[in-house]
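Now for a chain:

_____
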Amino acid sequence: LKPSWLQLKQGHGRIRGRPLQGAMADEEEVNPKAYPLAKENLTVTILDLVQQAANYKQLKKGANEATKTLNRGTAELVILAADAEPLEILLHLPLVCEDKNVPY
């Protein structure tokens, strides 16, 4: 996950300074291997949840931190970015989430 992914402008419906369009900010940037994608209304809800977690200092960013929290048993939810480059750095997370019974 890119740290700039979480740079949200609260209440403006924007990601990285671009307007939120469709299920993702830019469909061209989404890797076709990333499936399933959240619908637009669910995406907004997820981004609000991520913003709240960041405000309460409960957010971990990146594949390494997500893996650590999963292995320690402290993760409650994992959000995967469909525009991660390269996407392969995230592909182990669904397997670990299923082993630990954590929604992703």
Notes: Residues 3-100 form one domain. Residues 40-55 form the longest helix (16 residues). The chain is about 35% helix and 5% strand. The radius of gyration is 13 Å.
